Amino acid sequence: MGKITFYDGVKEIGGTKIFLEISGKRFFLDFGMNYKKRNLFFEEYLNPRVANGIGDLYFLGLIPKIKGLYRKDLVKFIRREGVEELGNEHDENFVDAVFLSHAHFDHSGYITFLREEIPVYMSKITEHLLRAMEDVSTTQFETSMFKFIKRPALGNFRSPGYYGTHSAINTNGVIRLDRTTVHTFPVDHSVPGALGFVFSGEEGSIVYTGDLRLHGKRKADTEQFIRNAKKFKPQILIIEGTNLRGENSEGREFWTEEKVMERAGEVMQKTTGLVIADFSIRDVNRFLTFYELSLRNNRKFVISLKDAYLINRMHEIGMPVPDITDNNIYVYLKKKKSGTYIDTDYREKWIKQILSIKGIKTIKANEIRNNEDAFTIVMRYWDLQELIDLRPVKGSKYIHSSSEAHSEEQEIDEWRMNNWLKLFNLYPREHIHASGHARKEDLFRIVSEISPKIIVPVHTEHPEEYVKKFGSKVKIVDEGETIEF
Prior knowledge:
By secondary structure, the chain is α/β, with parallel strands linked by helices. Helices cover 28% and strands 19% of the residues. Helix 6 links the parallel strand 12 and strand 13 (236-240).
């Protein structure tokens, strides 16, 4: 008898933690940070105390209370607080492996707290993307899989023995673990390297979609995943439902990546000043969209140091992205420490690595100001102070190519952003975006074609939409609930 327990990520978006027992093997399918629950207690300047290990997360109910799951240093540390519920460092591993669908932190974030000896299966792209994000990040406590700090934090911060790491096993094919076989397939999502899975054992087959879509540049991958998953005649399909929004959203236009390119191209063509593009740093496909549009419109493409580092890592592993020494790419230098752009202001190891690449071209705000209609610059919410140095001329445009605000905190950020844009003649912004998740009718098509016996919705606030379409085949689960197969 196989079992699936849903520890998190049901009836809400994010925080996916699905525990699968099949043919004597035990796996977690993703182990992410639940932003919605986290935001009940924390915000930008109120965060879990690093000095308390997983203590704050445990007492606030932000991680499952399971023995044999968490890093031994963290378990020993929390036992000092009288907590016995997580067991001790001598307990057997609760799971044999974690299968990570993609690099977004609502799926990957809390893997950092799991035992080091538990292997994490992921695509090669996901591994390199997560490593790059860790290299450039200044706050890693909750999301650092490959270089976490052991607790208690004693000794020299620069000592290699001070750090731990999880092992990543790259996969894009078939994995055989005793009597269990796992098939992994690439799917299209707003972050590269996303995977869907089929787990097969004596009890039958389970399909897990992860996050996916059918309207992006790599939609052929998702189509192939659907065809392959169907062949297994699965018992259960665990499927995301981010865009099952209910009745009030009927009739809303759903944009594709092609539509984003078309509309952004129209805006860029008419813009007489600076073009500012705001999109997720991990959305490599959106990066390519704005890079290509800049070339078409005779604009140089200006990216941040972090963008340059990430794209360089993707280029090194053979992804179809431009070399950052491309004649049309410039790397933007922000003012740091001295405010004078001297070399000693840019001391971080990863920055030195980028700036040392032969052929790299850097650019400063005053150089862009001299000829604004010749540039597209990538900026984000946390870069808004750069507008003071860039001083966009009238006729410039701010293209916001990310999700709209969907929480009170994000609405406050949006209000603050609009204040900046109004001051610098960039309001209203152009909102041009395509979701990283399949639209409602595509989700229904995926279910119909795979044709499972049981449908389990996750990663959605509206699981009842599946019931309306597929009736009694749909099993809506509660957090902590187990189903058998």
